[in-house]
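pls design
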């Protein structure tokens, strides 16, 4: 039977993520989470999904530290038994993660503290664990992890894998593989590189010969491991370090990754030989060197600068080797966010170039170019998708969801224009010109014959209709194309793009500004195909504020914007005690699947820019950046997708779109103007 308390959680709240800033470390991406679940008795912090080579495939997850006290005859699990915990970064610029779990039981009052870094030049990571307790006792410590190598197919978490114990160069290792990717786990305590007990078990199995390593150690609660050498299936692994009579201990765990057994083993042993402090120094130096190439926090407020720099660090961590930035390193309800959405990437590119991360912004543009649909491909709705992008992508460039979203067609043109404008590099103009022209030609072809784009999916991926935000992005894309085409001497095409954008802009309020139960407002979409309660053309929508910034289609002082901001004060749309706007009234994309108090920091960001630019609240951007956002962060200081009505992290962290909008708000405040407004279409 399954062991409920060892079942993989719904790990949508990541307090911290970690990666090395260079490519030599092969894109190792680690996440850590602090639980705050007293109903299930969970208050601890553990390492969760960890990947290498490509950030959308985990190689292990849920790494626990456990402690056996022979005198008291009980086993403590960091996740389940800690009375309190913390996850923190070394600094805003060096994402070394520290996890601290504190215990308060007879004979076991103390703490397990783990420090984690990824290697800068070797595909692997290091975990240094320190144990300190108030009393001396006979103790054994364990490291347990679900191996989780389940290949490309995210729908099959039980795919067959193999794990076995081996010995190399006087060290024991556990090696695991799915046949394509390999990992090797090793440990060192004062030069002792053998395991004091090692078990390969089957994840979630409570009893019998196949029981999980976690169940054997924690549920067995006898201080001994029933050793196993090899197994196949959906596996976990547990290894021990016996320390005898003591109140303190320290040991190093390394995990090496490779595309073969020898490579994974070599990487794990190399990191053991180098030791934690050496690798930590290299890790810190690499990150500090990278931060020298981008903007420091640009204000006089230390907390604001800290979150600004953490936002940059997080986006850099999430930029996969393919050049794209994954939306988030979390999985709500088994649906991973480790995909690349072109829309998210556009806003992230806007933030990167605002902060001087030119290299990363150029990489993002390269991703757009490399993943644009350039063949004659017809989607399920019969739309020829030449010149567009799919809804989202695996990091390999393979399409995942395939709906048409116009902000993911106009947006990349805008990103190209913005990075070119900020760099002044005409080589960059030329490099991606064909990409942008193909996207613009698609937009020109996608007119409904009545002066507006054909229907498309809204940015929340729920509604097929005339999306307010998507249409605004399409207009912005055509206007940006006009600027790019002028610079290339393609005057006729520039004029065609501007003329079509002008017609769509003239009809914008006709399609997008509606009477709703909350007052007149810019809505999600006109003529929605999919019914909802309320329907999309009868609900104000926070994404509509993007029509003000960055798309620059509606003036912030327009009556339509003022009316929509008035609707944002309706109790059906506000977020309880926290000044954070939801996507729209009646939003049920929540952990429970029901409408909850709470909102999205990124939605509040776009509303606050509209309030600021329109003069309704000159302090809206400053209040968000200097006060409100700091109540919405994880313990490590990162921003989520959603917060609850009290402002606490509720759902899906960290989200790179949230980090990007925060950074951009700070830039808006410092510059005294909205950064990245799309062209107004006048061509002057």
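designed seq:
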């Amino acid at each position: 039977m399954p062991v409920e308390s060892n079942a993989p959680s719904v790990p949508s709240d990541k307090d911290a993520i970690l990666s090395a800033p260079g490519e030599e470390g092969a894109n190792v991406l680690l996440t850590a989470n602090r639980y705050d679940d007293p109903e299930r008795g969970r208050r601890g912090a553990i390492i969760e999904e960890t990947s290498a080579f490509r950030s959308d495939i985990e190689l292990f997850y849920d790494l626990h530290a456990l402690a056996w006290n022979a005198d008291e005859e009980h086993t403590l699990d960091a996740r389940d038994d800690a009375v309190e915990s913390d996850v923190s970064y070394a600094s805003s610029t060096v994402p070394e993660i520290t996890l601290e779990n504190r215990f308060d039981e007879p004979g076991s009052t103390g703490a397990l503290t783990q420090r984690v870094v990824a290697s800068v030049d070797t595909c692997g990571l290091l975990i240094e664990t320190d144990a300190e307790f108030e009393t001396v006792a006979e103790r054994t410590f364990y490291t347990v992890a679900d191996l989780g190598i389940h290949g490309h197919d995210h729908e099959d978490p039980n795919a067959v894998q193999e794990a076995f114990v081996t010995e190399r160069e006087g060290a024991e290792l556990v090696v695991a593989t799915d046949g394509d990717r390999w990992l090797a786990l090793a440990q060192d305590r004062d030069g002792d590189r053998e395991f004091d007990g090692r078990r390969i078990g089957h994840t979630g199995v409570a009893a019998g010969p196949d029981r999980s390593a976690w169940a054997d150690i924690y549920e067995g609660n006898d201080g001994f491991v029933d050793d196993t050498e090899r197994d196949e299936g959906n596996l976990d692994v547990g290894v021990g370090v016996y320390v005898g009579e003591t109140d303190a201990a320290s040991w190093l765990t390394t995990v090496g990754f490779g595309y073969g057994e020898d490579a994974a083993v070599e990487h794990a042993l190399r990191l053991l030989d180098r030791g934690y402090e050496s690798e930590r120094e290299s890790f810190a130096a690499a990150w500090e060197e990278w931060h020298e190439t981008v903007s420091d926090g640009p204000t006089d407020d230390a907390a604001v600068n800290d979150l600004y720099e953490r936002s940059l660090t997080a986006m850099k961590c999430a930029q996969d080797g393919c050049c794209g930035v994954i939306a988030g390193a979390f999985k709500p309800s088994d649906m991973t966010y480790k995909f690349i959405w072109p829309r998210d990437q556009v806003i992230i590119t806007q933030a990167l170039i605002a902060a001087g991360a030119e290299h990363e912004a150029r990489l993002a543009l390269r991703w757009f170019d490399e993943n644009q649909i350039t063949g004659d491909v017809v989607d399920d709705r019969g739309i020829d998708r030449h010149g567009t992008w799919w809804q989202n992508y695996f990091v390999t460039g393979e399409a995942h969801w395939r709906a048409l979203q116009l902000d993911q067609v106009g947006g990349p043109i805008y990103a190209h224009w913005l990075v070119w404008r900020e760099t002044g590099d005409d080589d960059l103009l030329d490099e991606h010109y064909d990409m942008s022209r193909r996207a613009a030609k698609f937009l020109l072809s996608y007119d409904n014959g009545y002066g507006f784009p054909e229907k498309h999916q809204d940015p929340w991926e729920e509604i097929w209709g005339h999306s307010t935000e998507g249409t605004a992005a399409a207009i912005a894309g055509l206007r940006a194309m006009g600027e790019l085409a002028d610079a290339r001497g393609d005057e006729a095409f520039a004029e065609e793009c501007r003329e079509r954008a002008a017609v769509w802009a003239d009809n914008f309020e006709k399609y997008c500004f509606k009477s709703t139960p909350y007052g007149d407002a810019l809505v999600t979409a006109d003529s929605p195909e999919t019914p909802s309660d309320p329907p999309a053309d009868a609900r104000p929508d926070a994404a509509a504020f993007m029509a003000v910034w960055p798309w620059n289609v509606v003036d912030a002082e327009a009556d339509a914007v003022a009316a929509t901001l008035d609707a944002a004060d309706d109790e059906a749309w506000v977020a309880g005690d926290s000044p954070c706007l939801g996507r729209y009234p009646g939003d049920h994309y929540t952990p429970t699947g029901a409408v909850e108090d709470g909102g999205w920091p990124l939605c509040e960001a776009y509303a606050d820019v509209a309030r600021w630019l329109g003069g309704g609240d000159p302090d809206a951007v400053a209040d968000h950046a200097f006060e409100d956002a700091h109540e919405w962060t994880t313990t490590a200081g990162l921003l989520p997708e959603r917060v609850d009505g009290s402002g606490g992290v509720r759902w899906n962290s960290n989200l790179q779109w949230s980090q990007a909008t925060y950074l951009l708000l700070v830039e808006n405040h410092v510059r005294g103007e909205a950064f990245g407004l799309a062209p107004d279409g006048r061509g002057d």
